[in-house]
Amino acid sequence: MDIKNRKTITISELAGILGLSDHAIRSNLWRGADMPPRIKVGRRVLFPVEELDAWLARKKEGITSGTLRKRGRPRKGTA
Fold first, then answer.
1. What is the reported pLDDT for 49?
2. 47 phi and psi, to 5 degrees?
3. pLDDT under 50: residue ranges of the chain
4. CATH: 1.25.40, 1.10.10, 1.20.120, 2.60.40. Which one for 8-64?
5. How far apart are CA 19 and CA 14, in angstroms?
6. DSSP-based three-state secondary structure for 19
7. Could you identify which of 36, 40, 47, 68 might form a hypothetical disulfide with 55, taking C-beta atoms 3.0 to 4.6 angstroms apart as the criterion?
8. pTM
9. For 32-69, where are the alpha helices, taking DSSP H only?
C-alpha cells in the first residue's frame, strides 16, 4: 500500500497502518477518541496523508517524552 503518492486514505487503509480493524476505527471516531484529522465527503470518511503523518509524529513524541499515564484503577494507598 503506497500512500505517499496520494492525498487521502480510507478507513480501511488507516486500519492497516495502525494495526486495527475497520470496526475499531469507526468505533473510535464515533466515541470521539483521539484520531487523525478527517474529512467527510458525502458518507465517506477520508484522512489527509499529510495530517496523518503529523498526527503520528505527535503521538510518537508523547511516547518518547514519557507522558504516558498508568492505566487502570488506582491501588489503595497510592495517590
1. 92
2. -120, 120
3. none
4. 1.10.10
5. 8
6. coil
7. 36
8. 0.71
9. 49-64
